[in-house]
Specification:
This protein is α/β, with parallel strands linked by helices. 48% of the residues lie in helices and 15% in strands.
């Protein structure tokens, strides 16, 4: 990693103050530094309630800024619900929670038509999907029809009820959770549908010192109040600013090399991975990896992407986009192991 820092301090010194063709890196950097000023304030506000879990909070922000959605995997009690609820309070946005169960219907998520006897006509009742921040709790507990209704709304950013189509609120972030402990009575998401999530983040237990603070705060019942410090308009403005973060052609090539190595590992001196991969990342993988890297740079208040940004988000973007074979399962090789090998082999620009 030291080599990467040295390489990009050279990039900064040589290119930051120059006009690269029609792109003025210095101006972009100054603009992004100004536009991203709210990030520290937002993180500070969330840290009033969320102890530790910095990784999860950063991924929530990446999903929000990148206009994507997050699939979160972790055992119960790791503050998943609390995190997205706190984010909605700090951003002054609406929040809804959908507890997925086997008897849930698509209309319970999107909304339905209700007959109104007074006017002798049907009226529209919107579902919980109409919120800025939606928690889809234990998404793999609901049948395929319900999962498909949610994922369609995520993709299209709109919902059709009867003959009417309604755009969803902006900003719009879905955080779906999966419990890796229990698999009985679940409906695993098909690979093609999992691909619609920008990130799949796996969270672990807090450290012992962090859990001590969590335990003390809960016993006292003295959680600080979360204040709205950012408006939804600021978030929408930031989403546009993220698109302006500069990405050099060498970084684009680096991203594409990582993606193509998941499809054709033999072309990247990784022939030993060929029998372990059943399918590689789709073009959504390259788009989301580039977007997530820009969002990460934005969070770090930088107007340009460096290889460290790509490496910071690559596991979350690709872990659910690489299929592993039975041979890989027999050898206890996971998609994360494959990503690690690829990232270590691909030359850093």
């Amino acid at each position: 990693m030291g080599r990467i820092s040295v390489l990009y301090s050279a990039f900064k010194n040589s290119n930051m103050m120059e006009d690269t063709g029609t792109i003025d890196i210095k101006t972009i950097n100054e603009k992004i530094e100004k536009e991203s000023a709210f990030v520290d304030l937002l993180m500070l506000e969330m840290n009033k309630v969320i102890v530790g879990q910095k990784y999860m909070v950063e991924r929530l922000l990446i999903g929000l800024l990148g206009q994507g959605h997050i699939l979160l995997e972790g055992v119960p009690g790791l503050a998943k619900t609390l995190a997205i609820n706190t984010l909605s309070q700090a951003v002054h946005g609406s929040f809804s929670r959908i507890q997925f169960t086997p008897d849930l219907l698509p209309a319970d998520v999107t909304g339905t038509l209700i007959y109104n006897m007074k006017v002798n006509d049907f009226s529209i009742k919107k579902g919980p999907i109409f919120a800025n921040f939606v928690l889809a709790d234990e998404i793999n507990r609901a049948p395929a029809k319900v999962q498909a209704a949610l994922l369609e709304a995520m993709q299209e950013k709109q919902v059709t009820i009867g003959d009417d189509t309604f755009p969803l609120d902006k900003p719009f972030l879905v955080m779906a959770t999966q419990n890796p402990v229990e698999q009985e009575g679940t409906y695993p998401l098909p690979e093609a549908q999992v691909d619609r999530f920008m990130l799949k983040t796996v969270i672990d237990y807090p450290k012992i010192a962090e859990e001590q603070l969590i335990m003390r705060a809960n016993l006292k019942g003295a959680w600080e109040k979360v204040n709205p410090v950012v408006s939804t308009d600021q978030i929408l403005k930031a989403q546009k600013a993220v698109r302006e973060v500069y990405m050099d052609e060498k970084i684009e090539k680096y991203i594409l090399d990582i993606i193509f190595a998941t499809r054709y590992p033999e072309k990247y001196k990784l022939a030993d991975l060929k029998p372990l991969i059943s399918f590689g990342a789709s073009p959504r993988g390259s788009i989301n990896l580039a977007t997530a890297a820009k969002c990460y740079a934005f969070i770090k208040r930088r107007g340009y992407v460096i290889p460290e940004d790509v490496r910071a988000v690559v596991h979350d973007v690709l872990r659910h986009r690489i299929g592993i074979t039975y041979e890989a399962e027999a050898e206890n090789v996971t998609s994360v192991d494959i990503i690690n090998k690829i990232v270590n082999e691909i030359e850093v620009p």
